[in-house]
Amino acid sequence: FGERTLAMIKPDGIVGNHTHFIKTTILASSFTILQEITLQLDRHTAQGFYAEHSSRTFFPDLIDFITSAPVLIMVLDKVSAVSDWRALIGPTDASKAKLTHPHSIRAMCGVNVQRNCVHGSDSTKSAAREISFFFNHTDSGGNVSEH
Ligand code: CMP
Fold first, then answer.
1. Which of 39, 50, 64, 137 shows a CA-CA span of 20 to 30 A to 11?
2. Where along the chain is the active site annotated (predicted)?
3. Nearest C-alpha to atom 1 of ligand 1 is from which residue?
4. In the sheet that 3-9 helps form, which strands lie side by side, from edge to edge?
5. What pTM did the predictor assign?
6. How far apart are the CA of 139 and the centre of ligand 1, in A?
7. Exposed (0-12), middle (13-18) or buried (19+): which is 132, by Cβ within 10 Å?
8. 113 lines ligand 1 (CB under 6 A)
């Protein structure tokens, strides 16, 4: 085992049928998918997950978007998983990623700064918080913690 990070395929990725491409890209990049679950987030859960952004002007729109359809949440394992997954998904703004990182997942599947197809933890500290937010990782099963 290496390091763990949290990956999420957002509603635009699910609705746009990008799931197979994204998971194939993940596996081809030597990540191991340790856990995965598809969830329809409610507003309370979405607000908790994105709490660090709660004061931003885009927060209400972000909550509308992330609760608009199911999301697929995965725990990825690899040496340097956090930085490798961030590199693979590319810049937050998918419209800019198309110009600067055309082979990134966000460039290929996303649309703009909000509808950017995937999420990735930005640090090992965030990864630990985000993984325990969705998964009970004290056992090996795919249990989702209650909150
Ligand atoms: P993510 O990496 O999941 O982290 C926070 C999310 O908020 C981000 O991807 C985007 O979906 C959204 N976001 C970030 N910045 C903006 C912005 N300036 N305008 C709208 N949405 C944003």
1. 137
2. 119
3. 119
4. 32-39, 71-78, 3-9, 118-120
5. 0.93
6. 31
7. middle
8. yes
Which residues form the catalytic set? 119
- 26-42 in b/e form (b: 16+ CB < 10 A) is beeeebeebbeeeeebe
Q: 62 in ligand 1 pocket by Cβ < 6 Å? A: yes
What pLDDT, on a 0 to 100 scale, did the predictor assign at position 1?
73
- The tokens describing 134, both together, are 């969705």
Q: 78-123, pLDDT tens digit by residue?
A: 999 999 999 999 999 999 999 999 999 999 999 999 999 999 999 9
Matching CATH number, 3-134, of 3.40.250.10, 1.10.10.60, 3.30.70.141, 3.30.565.10: 3.30.70.141
119 lines ligand 1 (CB under 6 A): yes
- In angstroms, the CA 59 to CA 103 distance is 28
